[in-house]
Amino acid sequence: MALDNNNCRKITDQYDGESAAGTEFRRLLHNLLNSSYLPDDGKSFLVTSATTGEGKSTIASSLAITASIYKTKKTLLIDGDVRRPVLHKFFGHDREGGLSDVILDDTKLEDNLKSTPVENLWLLTSGTHQPNPTQLFDSPKVSELLAAAKFYFELVIIDCAPVIPVSDALVLGAEVDGVVLVVKAGETPREVSRRATNLVHESGANLLGVTLNNVNDALPYYYNYRYYGYRYSSKP
Ligand SMILES: Nc1ncnc2c1ncn2[C@@H]1O[C@H](COP(=O)(O)OP(=O)(O)OP(=O)(O)O)[C@@H](O)[C@H]1O
Ligand SMILES: [Mg+2]
Q1: Using CB atoms within 10 A of its CB, is residue 104 exposed (0-12), middle (13-18) or buried (19+)?
Q2: Which of 34, 141, 178, 232 would bridge 208 by S-S if both were Cys, CB 3.0 to 4.6 A apart?
Q3: β-sheet bridge partners, residue 178
Q4: Better-scored residue on pLDDT, 16 or 233
């Protein structure tokens, strides 16, 4: 799936469940939900990466859409990247009235949820711009917010900042049931990915696994679904 964030075309218009990418998102979701490392009642996931631009927001959103459509799970997608938030643009909303507002103001999660065109999928945007994002995640309200999210929803997926430049994902990661690290194949150096993996482990977060983005452009031919000449279609 190729996304064009510059013209802010909504992600739901670009999502194609029948594409090869759609299949990969179903596979990834299945693997996460069935991971032997996930606690029995585990339902909250955080998506991060080593550095910027590896595909975190794209993968977090697509996973949430996949879960809402194919697993019909009541899903909450949270924009936890308050430094470079994009999910409000992906879904055509303003960022205000979101995560930072619930943490800092006397306003509840339930009052800040934004609807999406996908049935079962709700969005909590990053919220009003805050000059001190680091302090935001130190608030005890973060645990309360996640507890409320897990109470109201069957699945919670958080898009977060990368782990090497800032600590946000490491702080939030300790509060969720599982962390997924996105690696942009062919671009992120091995040592950088290894450093990110170590940081997540050391933070005490439950790293469920690593997902490769940009596979078609970077990996050998046998990773490319087109090599197999197989295209399933439900149409006659
Ligand atoms: N598999 C993909 N195929 C094509 N384009 C992609 C793919 N994944 C991501 N992109 C594009 O790469 C850019 C970065 O993706 P995205 O915003 O999801 O990354 P990010 O890790 O969230 O970035 P940031 O660190 O800025 O938050 C976007 O323009 C997105 O459309
Ligand atoms: Mg992002």
Answers
A1: middle
A2: 178
A3: 45
A4: 16
Strand partners, 116: none
Q: Determine the straight-line distance between the first and last CA of the chain, rounded to whole angstroms.
A: 24
Class at the top of the CATH hierarchy for domain 11-226: alpha beta
**pLDDT tops 90 at residue 58:** yes
Q: Are 191 and 51 in contact (CB under 8 A)?
A: no
- Token readout for 32 is 């996460």
Which pLDDT value is given to residue 217?
A: 61
Q: Whose CA is nearest to atom 8 of ligand 1?
A: 55
Q: Which residues have CB atoms below 5 A from the ion given as ligand 2?
A: 56-57
Q: Quick one: DSSP state of residue 3?
A: -
Give the pLDDT mean for 191-196.
Answer: 96
pLDDT over 70 (residue 174):
yes
Tell me what pLDDT residue 140 has. 93
Q: Determine the Cα–Cα distance for residues 86 and 106; give it in Å rounded to an integer.
A: 24
pLDDT at 64: 98
Helices 56-70 and 20-33 sit at what angle, rounded to 10 degrees?
80
In sequence order, the β-bridge partners of residue 49 are 182
Any residues with Cβ below 6 Å from ligand 1, and which? 2-3, 5, 49, 52-58, 81, 84, 86, 162, 213-214
